[in-house]
Here is the input.
Amino acid sequence: MTKPLWARPACDPDLPADLRLQIARGRPGAQPPADRKPRSSALRRWRQQRDLDRQPDKIIFPHDLHGTDRLLLARAQVAVDTILESEVRAAGLLEPDEPALRRHEWEIACTSRELTRVRGLPAADAATGAMTAAVVDAQQRALALAEESAISRIRALERYAEQVTAADAAHHDWQVALGQGGLNDVYLDLVARTAADEVAVTELDELTDRAAITANVLKSSLRDAVTTGAALPLPASRAG
Here is the structure.
């Protein structure tokens, strides 16, 4: 089943693990602790929020991106998730470089943010004149080139994810086959019974042959009896 393309916040993998986890869970309210002594968990969340607010460039939220660029980020994240959440990885059969994958995700997010920023720049009317049209055309080609470059990296991630998905399918097939193979003894016992059937068939064939011989003897005896009866001389009938 294809995963829905919903982007989530992306963060710099160099951020502390607790902040990255906080981002993944969603940003809490930025209210400071009340005058009364706060709970340690509430204080910790507030400090995490304060740290996040101090480095907004380290976090990219989907709603800040243009729709096209948000989709690019979502594709990258789905591919990364597919790899990191795979069965073969859980089984220890694949060891993907998670830091490298997270770095790719972040760099794609940064490119998406930059593409969104450039898309929002004012564009001159190409109809103003030939020189203006040439400048606008060159800028649009530069934008398209940057977008295509990001897409090429995303496609590479998706190819990696496709291979991992294929490995997952093969691993599942192997597990099912292994489980089904546990029933082999039952089927071998069933096949072993065919030897008894073969003996029984031979025995029944012998009995069938004997019955055929008996039937033939009886048929011959009956024919002889009929023949003898037909040849039996009868006295001539007397005239009245």
